[in-house]
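Researcher: Sequence recovery benchmark, item below. Answer with residues only.
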């Protein structure tokens, strides 16, 4: 897990660590996940928040790719979930991403096509 090793974790008061990002780590994720140049991925300036993304840009959290096993382009199932709940990808927490991907993996391992209806039965 070279990606996980490259992430510097700094402890804060309490049990929850936070990631300490820098331009180099951002570029590592962009190159490691093979973001096409036309996506024009960029690292935010110091002090910028997710809501500061310019029009037509979205914010993706690093945990989506590591912990949530998210890959661009997303699966049809992921897009169906976002559409059904009228979410934008940046409104989904990394924990929510993990839940959705886990459900998808379980369905596929059992030979079932994941669907919004099936997800709603279980969650």
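Model:
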């Amino acid at each position: 897990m070279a990606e996980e090793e490259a992430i510097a974790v700094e402890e804060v008061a309490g049990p929850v660590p936070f990631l300490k990002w820098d331009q180099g780590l951002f570029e590592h994720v962009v190159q490691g996940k093979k973001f096409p140049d036309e996506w024009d991925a960029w690292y935010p300036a110091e002090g910028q928040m997710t809501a500061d993304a310019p029009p037509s840009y979205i914010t993706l959290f690093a945990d989506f790719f590591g912990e949530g096993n998210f890959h661009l382009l997303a699966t049809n199932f992921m897009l169906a979930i976002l559409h059904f709940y009228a979410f934008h990808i940046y409104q989904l927490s990394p924990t929510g991403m993990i839940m959705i991907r886990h459900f998808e993996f379980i369905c596929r391992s059992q030979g079932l096509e994941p669907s919004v209806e099936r997800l709603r039965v279980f969650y």
